[in-house]
Automatic annotation (TrEMBL):
It is an enzyme of class 2 (transferase). The keyword Signal does not apply. InterPro entries: APS_kinase_dom, ATP-Sase_PUA-like_dom, P-loop_NTPase, PUA-like_sf, Rossmann-like_a/b/a_fold, Sulfurylase_cat_dom, Sulphate_adenylyltransferase. Keywords: ATP-binding, Nucleotide-binding, Nucleotidyltransferase, Transferase. Residues 2-59 form the APS kinase domain. PANTHER family: BIFUNCTIONAL 3'-PHOSPHOADENOSINE 5'-PHOSPHOSULFATE SYNTHASE, PAPS SYNTHETASE, ISOFORM D. Its EC number is 2.7.7.4. This is sulfate adenylyltransferase.
Amino acid sequence: LHEKAGLKFVEVFVDTPLEVCEERDVKGLYKKARAGQIKGFTGVDSAYEPPSNPDVRVKASEFIVDECVNQIVLHLMELGVVPSTAVRSVKELFVQENQLEAAKAEAEALPCMEINKLDTQWVQVLSEGWATPLNGFMREREYLQCQHFGCLLDGGVTNQSVPIVLPVCTEDKERLKDCTAFTLKYEGKNIAIIRDPEFYAHNKEERCCRQFGTSNKGQPYVKMIYESGDWLVGGDLSVLERITWNDGLDEYRLTPLELRAEFRRLGADAVFAFQLRNPIHNGHALLMADTKRRLIDKGYKKPTLLLHPLGGWTKDDDVPLPNRIEQHKAILEEGVLDPESTVLAIFPSPMMYAGPTEVLTMAPGLTQLEIVPFRVAAYNTKLKCMDFYNPEKKEDFEFISGTKMRKLAREGQYPPDGFMAPKAWKKR
């Protein structure tokens, strides 16, 4: 019947031991069958014949529900029934272990191009799967989709509002334009192979105006764009090994897959994230506590916070990453945030200072958005603590921006009592 209708038929074997089925028994049917109240019950008093050649075998006793569903949806994606964006998978770009030696030998033999620290940070973002579904630095088709539509359109729609591109100078472009592959080096070390490269013009003014709304070189990332190469190169990346910085902070650089595993270990049934580039003050903590309360009110039992400080390039007057990590740890030690339900991990992306345009890229898989009224936290001068701003009592509130907070720190001054945990301020 399905063949006549032109429909694909998929046989799925939910391969689950009988004892697990009985343990779950959400409707109590196995219990009734064991008591003789239900006759001819499969697995109890009626034989079960497993399929001999199923299209998909799901071991439901070994994986959580989402992983079982993804396994089925992946198969449907391979058949072309559903788009690639239906699968919440992570696409890492690392060379498989059994191919690593050959890839390293290939990288050594290929022509090479030296890249800088900023480019290497983007290699890290791509290789760890933060920019799924990208296979590497954007080719021109992907770049134009990103610039004009703020998303990737091939194989479904994925948020990607800022381009992830590799600038190249004219000399390197001319030297490598006929190569089918070449090696990317950082500080003399082979880190990746870029395959089937495509070179195209780096239209810097248009890129900046679309991404930042300005081409003013006073904007720090705009300045770096104008100082970079006049060409862009896109292509598939084969990354030879995980990017590490050996700065004492690599233990906090968890990949998306590692984070998922950690949330499973903690038993999290909801995850909420707070991504920031500043030290945490009590206003931030108030917002995070309020988010957790909202999730509990919705019925979640163990909402878990992903505290996600940005770990790539930031402008010179921002607080350095090592200081911020120490400050975040002090916040957890002081109990301002619950250490039992918080995962502190570094987000490896550079900061672009592109406002809402950049924010959209931080949630590439977002398909639905619940618009929540933004509650502004400010310092309540009467209560001497951070509080939600009340415009009817505006004279009781003082706004302490990140810029002002950094200025106080540079000048060796202290913020008002209740603004930040004292131990955390000392770690600023």
